[in-house]
Amino acid sequence: MKKASIKIKNQVSLTCILSFLISCAFLNAQNMPGESFTLQSKYMKGDREIQIALPHGYNEWTEYDVLYMLDPKWNMELKKSLLDFMQKKSMSPRTILVGVVSPDRTSDMTPTKMDNFPTSGNAENFIDFIGKEVKPFVESKYKTSGHNTFAGHSFGGLCVMHALLKSPEYFDSYLVSDPSFWYDNKLLVKMAKEKLSKAGGKTLFIGGRKGKAYKGMGIEAMGTVLKEYAPNNLDWKIIAYENETHNSVIYKLNYDGIKFISQDFRNSTIRFTPNQGEVIPGIPLTIFMTQPNDKLRYTVDGSEPDFDSEFMNDSVTILKATTLKVKIPLKRDHTLPAVSGEFVEGTKLKGIKKGKKHAAGLRYTYYEGNFNKLPNFDTINVIKTGLVTKGFKLKSFPKKQFFASVYKGYFEAKTSGYHYFVLSSNDGLKFYIHDKLMINNDLKHNAHSQKSTVIYLEKGLHPIRYEYFQFDGGAEINLYYKAPGEKPGRLNFDRFWHKPSRK
């Protein structure tokens, strides 16, 4: 019985090794995106090449996460295109991609010496090279956030898991793709039982192929160890993909892995409407989720949501002044704070009866200057005045850039109740009702992010004011609203009124 058991183990290992060697033969080198650098390494006893690709729009006043990856000659182009897509869709943060080239991946990525692999066993030095030489180089050259991910496939996945167990201080997140956990009689699986306790606060994603390969690669065994030995604050996940090969699985796995690792970033993109405003005690105010998620939790007492907090569905209703906080709780350490909204106690604002003295539209005053923020309009000269009525566009102003404008008049509330206002702008904008600053969206920015507010207006006309400046790029103001009994929509000019000036 003992001999038969040994024979089966050897067959499993041989199958994995053959699968690994065959798959490597089909890995075609590609053009690596970005710029190449050569580092002199004491750990690797010679020069080593790294490839660095920056995200679109990289600038020196923004901090960026960094993803360190292995096997960039055949995998970096895929990861870069995937990151570009996910960053564009706000699924992951803008990330600096660092490819670490291995002239002998067997040497660099395996933890111990094995007779079947003559050059094997140099992973500890290789991990220290990345942690103590590559990382400092990247951090000295670029503006980084301090959040670092390590990613690898096959032997690279083995190396990434080794780094988590050996030196968890180097990285925050680990992306392990169809890893060769079978190596050296599942050495890392055994090591994990002893070392996982030091991996708390980290994020780990492991993916492989469903079926015999899931067991043969040692992923099933590692999953069993994680279930028993992983600390509570290790945020980990394993997925087995159907109908994939050792090479094809990397497409799905990278997408899911980056998405999992980036969950904290996506927490920062949570939006609810309104995200601030006034509530009348005892009159229910409904706050709507922009993108509902069945894992969202919320609190209304100012505390951070955790796994015991209430689930946030499509909406939540409040009856008094509240600090609303919403997020998906995570096990990992150093997460971003929840997205919060401050709702203060308000009063019902009385409207003015619309009469013959009111005419359609808003009055505007136009100014010119190189503004970086909204100016004190009392201290600058008026260039032009006019009316905002149907057909008015910002591009009708004399300048397309470097100008400011103020819009005054009345908003018509046709029914008493809560009125929601949503706006976005390029560049800065402030919105007042009854001389109350309801939305402050000042400074230079694009029009992608929206800000919203709510206020109780009784039927009638209510004085409003917009203050706006345009620095450069496209001038843009977008106004939306939701009134009682009305569908949400763009705020049309037929809701604006003003008093004509006397001649």
UniProtKB/TrEMBL annotation:
The keyword Transmembrane helix is assigned to this record: no
PANTHER family: SIDEROPHORE TRIACETYLFUSARININE C ESTERASE, SIDEROPHORE-DEGRADING ESTERASE (EUROFUNG)
Listed InterPro entries: AB_hydrolase_fold, Esterase-like, GH29D-like_dom, PA14/GLEYA, PA14_dom, Siderophore_Hydrolase_D
Domain of life: Bacteria
Signal peptide residues on this chain, from the entry's feature table: 1-29
Name the UniProt record assigns to this protein: PA14 domain-containing protein
Cited Pfam families: CHB_HEX_C_1, Esterase, PA14
PROSITE patterns for the chain: PA14, PROKAR_LIPOPROTEIN
Family statement: Belongs to the esterase D family.
Natural source organism: Flavivirga rizhaonensis
